[in-house]
Design goal:
single chain; 103 residues; mainly alpha; 3 helices
């Protein structure tokens, strides 16, 4: 009897071991990478929030603060990504940016 598990071909997107003990900038960069978050930065952001929420009382104040800094960095990355997407959509297909001084 074949089991459905044999047909699964996805690669795990779990964050590297020990990632959440690093500094905020490293955490944000690694979680935003396509290797860990192939579906985009927001999936890495959700991983971070899941870890913070499940850490509960077990996290020290300093560790919790560092993780919160990582969430702020990731929120900024997500906002920048959305702004870039809006800019490219606003230009529309086939529209080149206006030349300097052309009116």
């Amino acid at each position: 009897m074949k089991r459905w598990v044999h047909t699964v071909t996805t690669v795990s997107t779990a964050p590297p071991r020990g990632l959440f003990t690093k500094d905020a900038k490293t955490i944000a960069r690694v979680l935003a990478s396509p290797r860990v978050s192939p579906k985009g930065i927001t999936s890495g952001f959700r991983m971070l929030l899941f870890f913070i929420n499940r850490g509960g009382r077990g996290l020290s104040r300093a560790r919790r603060a560092e993780l919160r800094r990582a969430t702020v960095l990731m929120q900024e990355m997500i906002a920048e990504q959305r702004r870039a997407k809006r800019r490219s959509r606003a230009a529309g297909p086939g529209h080149a940016p206006a030349a300097a001084g052309a009116c």
